[in-house]
From TrEMBL:
Pfam family, one: C2
Gene source species: Copsychus sechellarum
Entry annotated with the keyword Membrane: yes
Cellular localisation: Cell membrane
Coiled coil: none
GO molecular function terms attached to this record: neurexin family protein binding
Protein name: Synaptotagmin-like protein 2
Keywords: Cell membrane, Exocytosis, Membrane, Repeat
């Protein structure tokens, strides 16, 4: 069924409903290292304020320094967020799409109490020109709220493949509501094909202790339509954790498949140490990464669990499975010793 198999134990105190502050913070730090880098990408308050106004900026590519530059000049007639005080505290944020997380965000300073802010700031990206030309620039304007969620004020999206690079002049652009590509296409990160199976304790053979504890089997088959971060393709691999256990014992990964946006992994992982009641509180996190020498880049992932927001009585942000992921996990819980096949979209987590 697969060319690699791994078996490790799912180990932590199931009955400890209120762990110490030290151990809890350690777990959360580990979870953040896996998926926290992209949490801010899709956060914010969309739709509470109607987009209006314009933004003035210019684009340039510095061939000598291999640097993409966005000169943000100013905005005019932005929406008012706090109507009682008649104020907005705007700033400008940029991403390179399709993968917001890889290149990261750049943002200007915040200008307080104005709907006509002047910035005159340069946002810079170190990136090869040939890679830049398969990107889109997403430039958005936001109201800064230090005590709550920042409010979206409008955006503009530019296809850099068709951009006139001889045009280095400042130009005005109309700010638009959140684009369909930002809602749908941008967050399309591929689809994972996999099968899972739960083997309850003592359910195999005549021996009542076979297996001595429950097992969760995860068969990662393949992934389709991964984000292509460079012209040569993507060198991908899959990481797996069983949350809340983020220790080295829980961590497993597949081999790296090079230069392929449709990699076939065919990799099986077995976690033992499961009791049936653990299935309600545990979450299998599978994340896909692009492998590079200096750092790996997050491509997308799935979380298999009940999506209740709670784990052993503790509120956790990673228990956030989608309806499809929850249904997949529930089907496994109801069909002991049977492989359940699924095709699940990767998401930003």
């Amino acid at each position: 069924e697969s060319d690699t198999a791994s078996e490790i134990s799912f180990q932590f105190n199931r009955h400890k409903k209120t762990p110490s502050i030290g151990s809890h913070s350690s777990d959360m730090a580990s979870v953040s290292s896996v998926s926290g880098s992209v949490l801010s990408v899709y956060s914010g308050d969309f739709g509470s304020v109607d987009a209006q106004g314009t933004v003035e900026f210019a684009l340039d590519y510095d061939e000598k320094n291999r640097e993409f530059q966005v000169l943000v000049s100013q905005c005019k007639d932005l929406a008012v967020v706090d109507e009682k005080k008649g104020r907005s505290d705007p700033y400008v944020k940029t991403y390179l799409l399709p993968d917001k997380a890889r290149m990261g965000k750049r943002k200007t300073s915040v200008k307080k109490r104005t709907v006509n802010p002047i910035y005159n700031e340069v946002l810079r990206y170190k990136i090869e020109k040939m890679v830049l030309l398969i990107q889109k620039l997403n430039l958005s304007v936001w109201h800064n709220d230090p005590l709550g969620r920042n409010s979206f004020l409008g955006e503009i999206e530019i296809d850099l493949a068709s951009w006139d690079w001889s045009n280095r002049k400042l130009n005005w652009y109309l700010l638009k509501p959140r684009s369909l590509s930002a809602v749908n296409g941008v967050d399309h990160r591929g689809v994972m094909s996999l099968s899972i199976k739960y083997v309850p304790p003592g359910s195999l053979g005549k021996c009542p202790k076979n297996p001595p504890s429950g097992e969760v089997h995860i068969w990662v088959k393949d992934v389709k339509d991964l984000l292509q971060l460079r012209p040569s393709g993507v060198d991908s691999f899959v990481k797996c954790y069983v949350l809340p256990d983020t220790s080295k014992k829980s961590y497993q990964k597949t081999r790296v498949i090079k230069r392929d946006t449709n990699p076939v992994f065919n990799h099986t992982i077995v976690y033992d140490g499961f009791h049936t009641e653990d299935l309600k509180d545990a979450c299998v996190e599978l994340t896909v990464w692009d492998h590079e020498k200096l750092t790996n880049h997050f491509l997308g992932g799935i979380r298999l669990g009940l999506g209740t927001g709670l784990s052993y009585g503790i509120s956790v942000d990673w228990m956030d499975s989608t309806q499809e992921e929850v249904a997949f996990w529930q089907e496994m819980m109801l069909a002991a010793n049977e492989w359940i096949e699924g095709l699940l979209p990767l998401r930003s987590l």
